[in-house]
Each structure stands twice: as C-alpha cells, then as structure tokens.
Amino acid sequence: MTKKRIIEWTPMYPDPIVWISVVKLDASWRHDAPYYVGKRAIGPGTGDPSRYKKFGDWFVEGHKIWMPHVGLTDEGYIVFSDGRHRFAWLRDHGLLTLPVTVSPDIEVEVRRRFGTKSRISRLPPKRTVTVAIKSVSLSAKSRRVLAATAVHKNPDRS
Questions:
Q1: Taking the CB of residue 91, how many other CB atoms lie within 10 A of it?
Q2: Is residue 80 in a domain?
Q3: 153 in any annotated domain
Q4: Around 67, how many Cα atoms within 13 Å sit in the side-chain half-sphere?
Q5: For the whole model, what pTM was predicted?
Q6: Is residue 146 a part of any domain in this protein?
Q7: Which residue of 22, 42, 100, 155 is most buried, as measured by CB atoms within 10 A?
C-alpha cells in the first residue's frame, strides 16, 4: 500500500479545523449522490476516476496533504467543497480519523455530529497473507472450496 503510515496535514483554508470520524462523515456524505466517490472510485459521483489514482500515487511520495473542506446541506448532510477524492482514497485504505476545515457557522454542529477525540491520522499497517499448501490431489469441488476459503478479508475494514 504505502510507505507512509502517519499523515501530515496542512490547512488549505483559514477556517476552523475539526477532527472527524471517517465512518460518520462517509455515512452522511453518501446522501450527496451526485458527488459521492464510492469505494475504489466506483460510482456516478466519481467524476474523473484518474483523480483518485493520481492522489494515491502522489500520497506515496510523502507529501503533506491539504485538509478537505466540508459543508452541510440544508438537510444536514456532508458535502465537500474540496478534497473528496483525497478523502475517498484514504477512506478506502483504512483511515479512521482526519481533520477537515469548515466554515465558522457550522463548526459546532460538525464537531458534535462527526467529531472524534483522536488527533492522529494513521493508516493501518499493510497486511499480507501467505498460504502454504502441501501438494495433494484434489477433486474439482475441493479445489473450488479451497479457492473460495483462501480469499483473505482484512477484519479491520468492512
């Protein structure tokens, strides 16, 4: 995945900074369907999917990252004015908390609804799975079952 585990943030705007839960923010952002960037940049709101990939390539180089800037719709859902592809890539790679900038008039509500006490953004360590299989003769059905159970899902991510 990436060499860098702890993320260094820099504000792009001089607005208040709120540390938020990625899970809470993502659940609200899903309501902004025309602009929601789905897992692995799949979905109608993705726009140019190369932006997602380019951010990942750029992130690996170790740059400081601009904090996303978010707002709230009249219904109270999260919208991004900047940083939705950055957020999506980091979400998909296991980030749990991050700082965002918000306008002063919504700072209290965003902190109350999406805030977290954590003040560190860390990607989980890269996990690898090694499977050793003794050479045996298997039926076609057994090979299918073995192939299906050999798929590893990271238990920290859903």
A1: 19
A2: yes
A3: no
A4: 21
A5: 0.74
A6: no
A7: 100
